[in-house]
């Protein structure tokens, strides 16, 4: 989990003059430094117990305005703070300062490309007087933020999904509205199993057998009567910022009220269209779930949502410019 900051698997953001790769800058332990200089002790508590929280935030590069458009930065940082509170983590900064740190990180990395920002708060070390054990209080907090170039994360033409044999961890075991690192073991197991079966992603069910979410995204179902449905927060899911944006966009721009209610597997498989929403996946059409297909390509509602979302994140819809934080890089 800490590997993000050491970065061998990520692209180098750019090439400095003279052809040498530009070292990637991260924010770590209260300072900006090159990713290679990040050192974490083997005793890092979050590494042992998964006691960390994180966010994924996207910035879209506008080459004409030389500006990075960061999508819903405040909403992501608010969720980070809420997740941190669940784990008694002190991020050390109010949201306005976190936002400024993210922008400074992007500036220092000269992010003239579509970018993914990954802030992480995590439990670091036992404080004096705290005895060895699995706990939250009496353990210090740390904050690390990194940024990397990222285009499409999944095939935008569509993904094949499997209903996972792993059920979503219920919220009364680990609060699902918090983006907690350790919880992602659940998602990783489901993803691995889906890929082994030749699929691109897994759809997890809650313990009652209703649709919860995919491994890094929320699920929308378009019924044969045109009704658009998405499972409610009570289905043990992470209520996505993209999900909320899509609900708002469909209502305002297409006159479609998304119904939030439990979705059965039968409804999922009988749907006219299914699509996923998330910061990473953006709007991804689902081509199939198990052995059921949805026509081989994105349906009309999915295409509408994809188009609206793309125009919003690229700053083309004036009414939603307030969802974007603009960082001009000159
Ligand atoms: C498990 C899970 N559900 C849903 C989402 C979608 O959330 P958002 O739209 O805020 O990125 C994500 C991605 O962050 C996720 O990891």
TrEMBL record:
Reaction catalysis annotation: L-isoleucine + 2-oxoglutarate = (S)-3-methyl-2-oxopentanoate + L-glutamate; L-leucine + 2-oxoglutarate = 4-methyl-2-oxopentanoate + L-glutamate; L-valine + 2-oxoglutarate = 3-methyl-2-oxobutanoate + L-glutamate
Pfam family, one: Aminotran_4
Domain of life: Bacteria
Annotated pathway: Amino-acid biosynthesis; L-leucine biosynthesis; L-leucine from 3-methyl-2-oxobutanoate: step 4/4; Amino-acid biosynthesis; L-isoleucine biosynthesis; L-isoleucine from 2-oxobutanoate: step 4/4; Amino-acid biosynthesis; L-valine biosynthesis; L-valine from pyruvate: step 4/4
Xref: InterPro entries: Aminotrans_IV, Aminotrans_IV_CS, Aminotransferase-like, B_amino_transI, BCAT-like_C, BCAT-like_N, Class-IV_PLP-Dep_Aminotrnsfr
EC number(s) from the headed UniProt entry: 2.6.1.42
SUPFAM superfamilies: D-aminoacid aminotransferase-like PLP-dependent enzymes
Purpose of the protein: Acts on leucine, isoleucine and valine.
Database matches in NCBIfam families: ilvE_I, PRK06606.1
Name recorded for this polypeptide: Branched-chain-amino-acid aminotransferase
Organism of derivation: Jatrophihabitans lederbergiae
Lineage, top ranks: Bacteria, Bacillati, Actinomycetota, Actinomycetes, Jatrophihabitantales
């Amino acid at each position: 989990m800490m590997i993000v900051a050491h970065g061998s698997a990520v692209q180098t953001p750019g090439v400095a003059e003279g052809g040498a790769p530009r070292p990637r800058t991260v924010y770590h332990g209260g300072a900006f430094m090159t990713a290679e200089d990040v050192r974490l002790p083997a005793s890092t508590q979050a590494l042992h117990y998964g006691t960390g929280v994180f966010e994924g935030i996207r910035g879209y590069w506008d080459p004409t305005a030389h500006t990075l458009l960061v999508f819903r930065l405040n909403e992501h940082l608010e969720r980070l703070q809420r997740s941190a509170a669940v784990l008694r983590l002190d991020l050390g900064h109010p949201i306005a300062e976190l936002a400024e740190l993210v922008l400074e990180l992007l500036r220092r990395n000269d992010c003239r490309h579509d970018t993914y920002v990954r802030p992480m708060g995590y439990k670091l070390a036992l404080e004096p007087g705290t005895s060895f054990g699995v706990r939250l209080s009496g353990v210090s907090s740390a904050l690390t933020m990194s940024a990397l170039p990222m285009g499409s994360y999944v095939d935008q033409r569509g993904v094949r999904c499997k209903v996972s044999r792993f059920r979503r961890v219920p919220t009364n075991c680990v609060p699902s509205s918090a983006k907690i690192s350790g919880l992602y073991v659940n998602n990783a197991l489901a993803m691995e199993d889906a890929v082994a079966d030749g699929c691109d992603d897994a759809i997890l069910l809650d313990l009652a057998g209703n649709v919860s979410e995919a491994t890094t995204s929320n699920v929308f179902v378009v019924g044969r009567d045109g009704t658009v449905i998405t499972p409610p927060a009570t289905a043990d899911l992470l209520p996505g910022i993209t999900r909320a944006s899509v609900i708002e966009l469909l209502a305002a721009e297409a006159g479609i009220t998304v119904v939030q209610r439990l979705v059965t597997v039968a409804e999922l498989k009988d749907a006219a269209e299914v699509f996923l929403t998330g910061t990473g996946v953006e709007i991804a059409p689902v081509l199939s779930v198990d052995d059921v297909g949805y026509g081989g390509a994105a349906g009309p509602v999915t295409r509408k949502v994809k188009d609206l979302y793309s125009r919003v994140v690229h700053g083309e819809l004036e009414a939603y410019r307030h969802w974007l934080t603009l960082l001009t890089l000159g």
